[in-house]
Amino acid sequence: MEQPKGVDWTVVILTCQYKDSVQVFQRELEVRQKREQIPAGTLLLAVEDPEKRVGSGGATLNALLVAAEHLSARAGFTVVTSDVLHSAWILILHMLGPGSPPGVWVCSTDMLLSVPVNPGISWDSFRGARVIALPGSLAYARNHGVYLTDPQGLVLDIYYQGTEAEIQRCVRPDGRVPLVSGVVFFSVETAERLLATHVSPPLDACTYLGLDSGARPVQLSLFFDILYCMAENVTREDFLVGRPPELGQGDADVAGYLQSARAQLWRELRDQPLSMAYVSNGSYSYMTSSATEFLHGLALPGAPGAQIVHSQVEEQQLLAAGSSVVSCLLEGPVRLGPGSVLQHCHLRGPIHIGAGCMVSGLDIAHSEALHGWELHDLVLQGHRTRLHGSPGHAFTLVGRLDSWERQGAGTYLNVPWSEFFKRTGVRAWDLWDPDTPPAECCLPSARLFPVLHPSRDLGPQDLLWMLDRQEDGGKALRAWRASWRLSWEQLQPCLDRAATLASRRDLFFRQALHKARHVLEARQDLSLRPLIWAAVREGCPGPLLATLDQVAAGAEDPGVAARALACVADVLGCMAEGRGGLRSGPAANPEWMRPFSYLECGDLAAGVEALAQERDKWLSRPALLVRAARHYEGAGQILIRQAVMSAQHFVSTEPVELPGPGQWVVAECPARVDFSGGWSDTPPLAYELGGAVLGLAVRVDGRRPIGARARRIPEPELWLAVGPRQDEMTVKIVCRCLADLRDYCQPHAPGALLKAAFICAGIVHVHSELQLNEQLLRTFGGGFELHTWSELPHGSGLGTSSILAGTALAALQRAAGRVVGTEALIHAVLHLEQVLTTGGGWQDQVGGLMPGIKVGRSRAQLPLKVEVEEVTVPEGFVQKLNDHLLLVYTGKTRLARNLLQDVLRSWYARLPAVVQNAHSLVQQTEECAEAFRQGSLPLLGQCLTSYWEQKKLMAPGCEPLAVRRMMDVLAPHVHGQSLAGAGGGGFLYLLTKEPQQKEALEAVLAKTEGLGNYSIHLVEVDTQGLSLKLLGTEASTCCPFP
């Protein structure tokens, strides 16, 4: 099912109570926009509350005003106008949904929500405001807010910490109550009404404009002032005299001021309906001061394993089920108990954190302090502080079960104060001033936490000693007393939020680099693309490039090194920010030849170092970055080539009688049609994932269209001819010296494939000290003549070039007095195409050299070996298939080279969709083979249709518009269809519903405009495969190629 699209917010506003936090949170919003977590066009604003005590309602009004101001200025207005709200989606987040119409969303950030992707909220005929409610138990509702609604969902009342009777009235048919979740939506009309109040005293005092005008601040609640006046059962009298829960009892002097503000809200908003959307399959957890509740929201007590997010953990087996690790780097044995949470920590074991703990903000320097301890039911946190302008590091330690309330019997570290005093020697006067009232002597006000010691740095050990009776003669107690200590309440204003976020960002990249190294070295199918984007967008690609260099240089597996180099190319491409030209392009600049030569010689470490040195010269502008990225992909191709060269292990020949001089050896082959699994045969997928392709050897219009012929000639030269079977339009080349063969590795050079065939067949050694004529005369007593031909158009998609290489090798080997088996020939073609530097997989030669219907497979290992299995079909099915199979030449020439580069780039990036699709290609090949065994044309049609969708996902852009139009026209007449090979053009093959449909489909296409120069061809399964025969002797002329 298609996932609903998220909202592209026009404005996202984060309200802050503290001035020093505004710039910090503004930067965090911008960082998330750089990571593409927020759309690029969204306006981001961190907005300071006019006063600390304007309440959630006042903060909402002020934020709405600021948003309207910015949108008005963006639209060219010189004054604030509410018209800008009509086309805006505004999200206001208070510090402490898809499908909706334009308006304003307001959301608190002091709760954890879990909602489905599509909550099923209907916006038909909606007006007014809407609150989002989530289900909760009656017991939970006693300490929270709940909504009372009528059967149509209109809100009648809002209860906060209501009575049993009030809560009972809110119970829904599912036995749960709708909790106030902190999420509200205002329609444009209602938002305009609310915005209009910013010019009316005393509500103007909620905004920065009122503050700048000297107005007295007023505290408003979003829910119990602004929304409460819209509830159906609330009367004006009750509303004016009521007090919102967040207005403390000590604020009686502002009651009259508040009453005036409420009267203004009643006039503006009373006629606006307030409705509720109840998300029955969601959940809500308010972040209270209770550590137990907080841990319950973060950990997953019933989960079968540990939850690991943005973290690298060396020994995951030590994490208990139900535990949670977030943004951490854990080295060595770090044991975590059930229900415990680690956040923002870099720890090195051995460390044992038992059940019910939360540890946050500790760095590797603090790890030693935890050695030897086994923590249970504790909350240990490291905090970045700024005391009198100086940065510092403080630590807090409390018990999970400690009460933070001021009334009642207090505890610390899960034991009564009296027991704590007895165990540690700490006294009450250490924690509170003598004149502190007993009711104020509580955990929040206790000066427990050292923040500065006169002679040394502080660490977790300065608190952990309190957990057990010490045998140190009071040393730890004396050090604690000698430290400047703060209470929890005193510590809060000293927290350095900027330093905290900076340290978290640093840790995020530290663990990410460890994870990147592990992902590459362990050959995991996880994408590093998000990390690459984050590193580049946040201005720190250097450490990532260094890590990738280290992995590549130290890799024992060429596949690991090649992927690391591909990731470097991705980093460079990302640094270009979409400028500098296309990623695909040439990679043979002379400046890069020195590092390439190291790689070609197998000196990986020197090659990677030389690449990095050259890279540093190409970082100054986007065009150079893109060119450098291309050369890193070129370096990766060298390593792929070396890996595929391992297929030589499976190439062998047997000596046979040498044909006489002038005697032609002729090799002919059918074309191939791929029915399933293509791309999985392409290196490196073929040896990293393992490939499986089902292919058919086919004759086109009754002919075997691909062939080669070779013979020995008396002249010690190589005579090459490329072109049609007849002599017209044939490219003719004579090689008289080794220099004439030097361009064998340049695929577009005339005769490059034939030259590579001579080298791969071992007839010529291009780096030998012997001249060409000396080599030929010494071994064969003369030279060779080699002709190749194909009757198929260039870029047909039917495997022409690989099959042509196979015929050329087979003919040459036989002319040289050797015979090579077909399976050995398949591997020989792999080797030849790497020598030629075209790359490519093995499916083409399997499809054309082997007869009939078969599945080729390669395992996820090196050396690369291809195994072929014939697919047995029911009697008579081949003829039935021939009657229903047609080829349509689309008139479009495909450009598979760029498609191949794009696919390899996506595979090396391990994009999740590409990885999943690659696995599906292999799996469906087996399903397609079963459809052939059953002899089911409809099933085969389904396979073809699915296969074409897989090809398009693998290589977006492989379906030209004219081809799509042709396929749409043919769709009613076929079981299935697909472009051959990589797509992009060439031949389209069809499995028709009715037999012998060539003329009928020609008539259908003739009626369709804009299809270009197409043609329809008969096709039949070839049951012979490669054929090799010796013809009579023909005398050669002295120089047949003028």
TrEMBL record:
Residues 929-1004 form the GHMP kinase C-terminal domain. GO terms for biological process: GDP-L-fucose salvage. It comes from the Eukaryota. Its EC number is 2.7.1.52. The keyword ATP-binding applies. This is L-fucose kinase. Belongs to the GHMP kinase family. Residues 94-454 form the GDP-fucose pyrophosphorylase domain.
